[in-house]
Amino acid sequence: MNVLVTGATGFVGHFLCARLLKEGWKVLGTLLESEIPSCLVDEVEPVTVRPLGGNTEWGQALAGVDTIIHLAARVHIMDDPSADPLTEFRKVNVAGTARLAAEAAKAGVKRFIFISSIKVNGEESPSPYTSASRPAPSDPYGISKWEAEQALRKIESETGMEVVVVRPTLVYGPGVKANFLTMLKIISKGIPLPLASITNKRSMIYVGNLVDALTVCAVHPAAAGQTYLVSDGEDVSTPELIRRTAKALGLPARLFSFPVSLMRLAGKLTGKRGAVNRLTGSLTVDSSKIRQELGWMPPLTMEEGLAETARWFKRNR
């Protein structure tokens, strides 16, 4: 099997390429002109492309490719400096994805796996989201991912190329960045956090579990045409996540109580409502569909995933 991985130099991309090579696949990985081949996992064949967009030329990059796993995207950005973020997200995540898929179908690619986002479903959920839940994206990133999904389904119906959509929850693991890395740094410094009163529930997925699910989606016949929500299957509150992460680091969790209502008020007054809502609100998913249809189970528990993440953090601190 020949597979093209876009976003191969990224956090998930590194893990995915290593796994596919281990499975015996020939792996091609996209590389921007500003990047060097050493950015890729060893033995991945580099495919140099221009930034993802509606006019990206794919040409020979698709020759002989059976499957595409499309990770590359304009990712969610806190305090996005763009004057019109939705337009910028659409250029990459919608137009860029549709262009790649259309070219892939012409080149005879059999299966296109699209890594979307749980943000397609929404930002908070009093009950778990399922694959049948009505999409309700509320920010430019989530909207662009939902529009990309719809564009892919249209191409699928017109060309017969199999499309599989995977919506991960928060991904963590060795090499993680953004908010999860910030949490690791705060815990390691022993900074007290006013989060003990939060009683929410959040779903997450270890990067190794996500990569395992993507590998199954690449080969299982029943995955064609489906949309799957994936998680570790263990939902935790914000303070419980901090306690588990601190334990993995071999450190105490320094938590104290503070009224959640005042946190939300402070978020509203300071323009940080979204960040506070992610800390205090619930977002869970029911991943039973992929388990039942494809027989997939996360190979690692959350405890094991956090332990791997902690080992990486301590080595690189």
Question: What does this 3D model show about the protein?
Answer:
The structure is a single chain. The protein is an alpha/beta fold and 317 residues long. 42% of the residues lie in helices and 14% in strands. It has ten helices and nine strands. It has helices at 11-22, 85-107, 140-159, 178-188, 207-219, 238-249, 260-270, 273-280, 288-294, 302-316; strands spanning 2-6, 26-32, 45-49, 67-70, 111-115, 162-168, 170-172, 204-206, 227-230. The protein has a seven-stranded parallel sheet with strand order 3-2-1-4-5-6-9, with helices on both faces. α2 (85-107) links the parallel β4 and β5 (111-115). The mean pLDDT is 95.
Summarize this, please?
The protein has helices spanning 11-22, 85-107, 140-159, 178-188, 207-219, 238-249, 260-270, 273-280, 288-294, 302-316; strands at residues 2-6, 26-32, 45-49, 67-70, 111-115, 162-168, 170-172, 204-206, 227-230.
